[in-house]
Amino acid sequence: MLSLQFIAPGALDRPLPLLPGGNSSSFWAKDRCLLKASPSIAGRNNLRFNGGTVRVLAMSGDSSAFKMNLNEYLVTLEKPLGIRFAVTANGKIIVHSLKKGGNAEKSRIIMVGDTLKKAGDSSQNRLAEIKNVEDAQNILKEQTNPLSMVLERPRSPFPIHLLHKPSVESSGNSGFSTFNEKFLTPKGSELLGNPNEHVILNEEIKFFSDEENNEGEWAHGSFPLEEYVKALDRSKGEMYYDHSLSMRYTKISEQIYVGSCIQTEADVETLSKVEGVTAVLNFQSATEAENWGIDFRAINESCQKNNILMISYSIRAGDSYDMRKKLPFCVGLLFRLLRKSHRIFVTCTSGFDRSPACVIAYLHWMTDLSLHAAYTWITGMYTCRPDRPAIAWATWDLIAMVEKGNHDGPPTHAVTFVWNDNEGKDVTLVGDFTGNWKEPIKAMHKGGMRYEAEVKLPQGKYYYKFIVDGNWRHSTASPAERDDSGNVNNVIVIGDTASVMPSVQHQPKDANVVKVIERPLDEKERFKLAKAARCIAFNVCPITLTPKSQVVA
């Protein structure tokens, strides 16, 4: 059971939907307070207001009395709710507006655009599924105080500014979008709950609520409307994964397909009988599959039935470092499968990041295509946004395998060395990379106690120090080592060495900032990259390339 707890309010750059993921879920309330669901705290949070008490509960897992998806939440309100519901053309019941000063608005949780999924008495474990407007209206009339509702947060920003036209009044000088009953129009408007499907409000049913008197001031949320519209414009280029659209994929070549996760046995049938796929390379974890309600065992059995080899190798979603360390092994798996003449479906949960990153890295490392060309090719054919810096990091890690720590080419990384201690008005940087400690680099003052010096360096291990007002100092905020003479110097290791089975460990804390440099490789670097990538591929073992499920630890 997960209970919602308030975290400190923060600035909102853009409206965020409730996004699924991991063992916790979070979303933005309409007053811009971040609500976080924490598995370490059980039970309910009772939030008391002048108008009464609201109970909020988010749950996941089989131990919960109410089965809910990760983007759903349960809220209990005293009546009248202060919610005006609307019905979409496809039958969904959505929150259209909130009454100013009503219980729903005071809860600071319910947002316009949320879909009503269930309602009833949660104290008696009785929540009825809302299938149509009649169900919703009956429960609103019959249920006595309090009323519990399961609502679903949209996966993409909700265009509140389109909900009413043309009359908008200003609430004082706040700029909040408000309107009165007389300003409502029956036409409704388009919603963006699904970017591939425009949903229209049902004009015949219009609006309904649990209150007989609908007069009063209603609003679409307590936020400046103009800022919300600007935030929507900024978010247009972003991608939102919609699990309800089922498996989506694109053919990259005769042997490679890339796409989102396999959800059903029917998806397996499509891959096998329609596309002729003979192997699946899956980067989704078992926990992710469970969170999305995917029957992983049934999928594996269907793959065996259709003579498809399923190989699962988990990469943590959104973890650039995990991607960087595991990518060489993933490309090795893909290379081995292609050498066995398999037709492969490369997949992860959304299909936006891990799976296309593997295909791009394969093209870069194994076919001598530049990273820029490979990235442009895949993103041009398939809508995705893979972690390009992670691929560049992994590229230099592979090259380091052959060089064994001695890179003699141009710089591979840009390092910002940071001095952030109390003392010092004149700060310079010296080290192995400053003419053997003889040519100090001036650090620039960035405000407060912070000084920075940026240096582009080839990957490797370097010792350095700061000269502060004429005195040699080492930074206590970065790793340090004592040399044979007893002197303490800061040390930085830039880059890493790829391995067949990497161990992903937490990196030591360091005030310095290291960024990878993506540049065209010279002939020697391309040769080293191809050699290292194939070394990893031919050491991928033990993988039996037969039509059965393989889980690589």
TrEMBL record:
One of its GO terms (cellular component) is starch grain. One of its GO terms (biological process) is starch catabolic process. One of its GO terms (molecular function) is phosphoprotein phosphatase activity. The lineage of its organism: Eukaryota, Viridiplantae, Streptophyta, Embryophyta, Tracheophyta. Residues 74-155 form the PDZ domain. SUPFAM superfamilies: (Phosphotyrosine protein) phosphatases II, E set domains, PDZ domain-like. The keyword Hydrolase applies. This is PDZ domain-containing protein. Pfam families: AMPK1_CBM. PROSITE patterns: PDZ. It comes from the Eukaryota. Keywords: Hydrolase, Protein phosphatase.
